[in-house]
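User: Can you help me understand a structure? I only have the sequence.
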Amino acid sequence: MAAHASQPLENKHFCQPLINRKRAAHEVNSTLGTLEVWNSTGTKELVYIKIGRAVRYRPYDLLAFNLARLRVRKS
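Assistant: Let's start by predicting it. Here is the structure, written out as C-alpha cells:
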C-alpha cells in the first residue's frame, strides 16, 4: 500500500536523522572530496538530498550503497 501525503510514514528508515557529508564520507570509506566529485559527476549512484546549499544523506541510502559494493571472493 502506497503512503499518501496525509498519512505518516511508518518505515523506520525514513524517520532517521539525515547525515552530513563528513560522516557520510566516513560511512562509505571515502573522502569529502571524493563525495563531491561523485555528486557533481554522477560517477557513483549514491543518493543524496540537497537542502539549500547543504547536502545530506539518508542512513538507508548509505547502507544500500555499501551493500551494493560487497563482493564475495570465490576460492
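Now, to help you interpret it: Residues 32-41 form the longest helix (10 residues). The two ends are 43 Å apart (CA to CA). Let me know which part you'd like to focus on.
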